[in-house]
Amino acid sequence: MQTGSFFGYKCPQCNSTVDIAAVAGSNELLCSQCKVPMVPDPNGRTSAANVYCANCKTSYGLVNSDRCPQCGDPFSSM
Questions:
Q1: Are 21 and 41 in contact (CB under 8 A)?
Q2: Which of 46, 49, 62, 65 has the greatest count of CB atoms below 10 A from its CB?
């Protein structure tokens, strides 16, 4: 079975956007509105995985930001 993960995509037809998506059974992301294949969005939101905030002492597996959602500090390396 094919799967795909997508970060920062937009629909070329209706301009709807997706920050983070995972699709089982396909390696193509389709727009939920238009059902056309979505394309990478160079202006999409930043995503981060396996990050740690030294200020809050909190770690995140996946978040669509380059800063801690609790305090706004940049993430530290784990």
A1: no
A2: 65
Longest distance between any two alpha carbons in the chain, whole Å: 42
pLDDT in tens, 8-47: 899 999 999 988 888 887 778 999 999 999 999 988 877 8
Helix (H) / strand (E) element for 53: namely strand 48-53
Q: Both tokens of residue 41? A: 């969005």
Instruction: Give the distance from CA 5 to its chain's centroid.
Output: 9
Residue 18 phi, psi dihedral angles, 5° rounding: -135, 125
Print burial letters for 28-56: b (CB count within 10 Å at least 16), e (below 16). ebebeeeeeebeebeebeeebeebebeee
This prediction has a pTM of: 0.63
